[in-house]
Design a protein that fits this description.
Layout: H1 2-16, E1 27-29, H2 35-40, E2 45-55, E3 65-68, E4 75-79, E5 83-94, H3 100-115, E6 137-140, H4 149-156, E7 164-172, E8 178-182
Parallel strand pairs: 1-2
Antiparallel strand pairs: 2-5, 3-4, 4-8, 5-7, 6-7
Length: 196
Amino acid sequence: MFQDLDKTLEELIKKELPKLSNGDSVTISFAASDNEFASSVQQLTINLFLYDIRENLELRSNEWAVERQSNGNGIAHKYPPPVRVDCSYLITVWSKTKEIQDEHRYLGEVMKVLMRYPKIPNEFLQGSLKGKEPPLRTSALRPPQSQNWAEFWQAMGGKPKAILNYTVTIALDVHKPVEAGRLVQESLVNYSQLVE
């Protein structure tokens, strides 16, 4: 499912990001932003590094859904609510020429694209995320879970860069449905008159 989320974000950015003025193309990568990645950059590259995955406890629900079977046998299934998971990306822009102005300009353009959509529209959803309910909620520019970015960049072996924190909340169906039994399909009411 994470690969489908990556493809979804790639589709969104590619379709919504303005073209480069010199006609060059932009590469989108999901690799770790380490020294090896930095030295391999050949053209302007937008890197979305998935650095944190955790359950969103604020959106946890205990309400089960009931669904009738389409075969007409009157049996229904109960479904536990999906688990909501926050997937946080560290977004950076890299260029071979190391022109900071170009990197910052494109980081700003990516930020505008992502902030345009508080929920990712269905037209961009890929693979297992197509038609997913509830819709994929997003948040950008919120304080990241990890506050010590100096340690992060040191661990990655690189120098600090301007970053954009972006989180997408996805729903995971991790439980199997439970048979709820037969649904009530008709009710009988018997009226009788009392005789005195």
